[in-house]
Amino acid sequence: MLDAIVIYLLLGCAVGLSAGLLGVGGGLIIVPVLVVAFQMQDMQSSTIMHLALGTSLASIVMTAISAVLAHQRRGAVVWHIVYGLAGGMLLGSLLGAVIADQLSSSVLQRVFALVEFVIAIYMMAGAPAVRRAMTVAIQRLELLLAGAGIGAVSALLGIGGGTLTVPYLCWRGRDIHQAVAVSAACGLPIALSGALGYLLTGLDEIHLPPLATGFIYWPAVGGIAATSLLFAPLGARLAHALPVTQLKRVFGSVLLLIAVSMFVI
After folding, report:
1. How many CB atoms lie within 10 A of CB 19?
2. Cα–Cα distance measured from residue 81 to residue 4, given in angstroms and rounded to the nearest whole number
3. Which of 16, 50, 106, 209 could form a disulfide with 232 if both were Cys (CB 3.0 to 4.6 A apart)?
4. pLDDT mean by block of 10 residues, the chain; 265 residues
5. What pLDDT does residue 137 have?
6. What is the C-alpha separation between 136 and 179, in angstroms, rounded?
7. Which residues cross the membrane (predicted)?
8. How far is CA 13 from the centre of its chain?
9. Residue 240: what pLDDT?
10. How far is it, in rounded angstroms, from Cα 10 to Cα 216?
């Protein structure tokens, strides 16, 4: 158990940096590491991936708060976009958690890796993919629908939403620094709603480890949150110091490495 706690604390450091730097809540890093940590603790194999996803979302809540405050101090959060996406994300993330409960752990793991791989290639290539202006006439409806889709996929994969929100906003012509800041803010409603979904859908699971409520393992949540709160502001400072092209390549490289690791483990 002591080894696991050390892993959770170190994981929180990486999560805080990624949340501030890339606008991702850390699920991309948290989930694969938790899968390995839970295997080390001899948890029931049929519940490991679901526990990793639910625990990931629960730990992202505090990280998201710290990251968005750091970006807000730099005036990078575009709040009308956050509000437009947030409503759809809340509904979508609840739906994603319900869908995940019907899928096997191995299927979830492969879907997670595939989505990460595709987005990594897109970001590293700097794909210009037709950029359109954010017009007032379509903004609210489009953001609502985009938020619902992002929320559902993010909850299904146990991520905070930045993996999809950042590429979407870059495609829509937003500066990546703004995209990262908006993504950090949007991670909070996804994490809250998704974590609640995993908690509720896991209440009837009979093979949960001690100190778990539904598919949320609280020792991991506490360890990750404790250190991620300290490192998220540092990541935000780095994000605003890096040029756009370099930041996109860092984002894509992180996704690619983790996608490969999830195919292997």
Report:
1. 38
2. 38
3. 16
4. 85 81 70 89 89 88 79 83 86 80 73 76 60 52 88 72 78 80 81 85 90 94 88 79 72 74 66
5. 42
6. 18
7. 6-38, 50-71, 77-99, 111-131, 143-169, 181-203, 215-235, 247-264
8. 15
9. 74
10. 19
Listing DSSP states for 127-152 in one string gives ---------HHHHHHHHHHHHHHHHH
Long-range contacts of 173-177 (CB under 8 A, 24+ apart): 173/131, 173/132, 173/133, 173/134, 174/78, 174/81, 174/134, 175/244, 176/244, 176/247, 176/248, 177/76, 177/239, 177/240, 177/244, 177/247
**Domain range holding 98?**
2-264
Give the pLDDT score at 135.
Answer: 44
| pTM > 0.90 | no
What whole-number distance in Å separates Cα of residue 96 and Cα of residue 151? 7
The residue type of 103 is L
> What is the number of alpha carbons within 13 Å of residue 120 lying toward its C-beta?
16
* SS3 state at 76: coil
Identity at 160, one-letter amino acid code: G
Question: Total structural domains in the chain?
Answer: 1
Cα gap 113→258, rounded to integer Å: 8
Please give the Cα distance from 129 to 171 (Å, whole number): 6
Beta strands in the chain (DSSP E): 212-213, 216-217
Cβ 100 vs Cβ 109: under 8 Å = no
- Token digits for 241? 């110091």
